[in-house]
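Hey, resending since the last one bounced:
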Amino acid sequence: MSLAETTASVNGAFDSIPIIDIGHASTREERAVLARQIRDACMNVGFFYVRNHGIPEETIDSALSAMKAFFSLPLETKMKVDSSHSLHAILRFIQSQLYHRQSVHVRGYEPLLDSNVDPANRGDLYESFVIGGEELVPKEYDDENVRDDVIKNLWPSEPAGFREAFLSYYHAALGVGKVLHRLIALALDLPETFFDDKLQQCQIMRGLHYPPQTGPEDDRIIGFGAHSDFEVGILMKAFDLAKPGIQALQVLNSEKKWINATPIPGTLVINIGDLLSRWTNDIFRSTVHRVINRSGVCRYSIPLFFGLDPHVEVEPLPSCVSPERPARYECVNAGEYVQKLMQEMYRRSFTASDDATQHDDRQ
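The structure tokens again:
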């Protein structure tokens, strides 16, 4: 039975998010069992937790501690690694160069209300620090050999050890991502290494700080507006669990009910991106979610985005298409697709910023 023929049993009215233990994936039989669990989670929910992922707690704690120390610095200090000049360079590049030459993600610090993913809102109430791929120990002659189209990371001079803590977690999480993408390939009845040569360039990590939020939930400024993620593969989140019960992430089910994705000690939260949903002809769900921090304390998370390499072409997989479920999408280029959506998001950010300024001026 093809994947397209299994959709009759799908039920998106979930009221909880499944937990998958990936601690035993050494044999073909164990991976097959895990692939079936992941397939079920991706078809019905689009989100799942993983436990026994193999990242040492001290690696996660060190990254979160470094992030908290950085975000506690004065704004003028954080703005020394402001990503805006990187963003403007990216937008200029997009307007003048071919799509496959450039990633469209910013690097460095993003202040509060710098983005706006939901057009109905006036901005997203978080600050972040964004990095891309970089070796923890730079190889000799790295600077001379780096491609012109690669955006370098921006690093703060303080707190001490920030770069090392962030990159240590980044590389540990990449290892988990490779395991998960191989299991996702098996879940799609593809060769286990299907994604290996397609996910080599565009892995972006963002440290996020959500300050406590008050006011009605329908306010036009919330932690992170309702959205789905447009990357292809998984988005992996580690949460600050120092203060149990910090609820903020919510996932929208098919009955339009918001389901809490409560942090669970020892787990990471995984969700599926839009391009993977498109690749599977919407059999795997890219689920809308949002962040509203009403806990009364600061909330931190570290999502790692797995994006397709810009040259990859995406069209519905043959196993996800049938006479009863014809292809819903045309073939798209991953680089062009992501560039377009990034440009739209940051244009909304500039517009929202102007609207917020005018609103404040009227107060």
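The longest strand covers residues 202-210.

Sorry for the duplicate.
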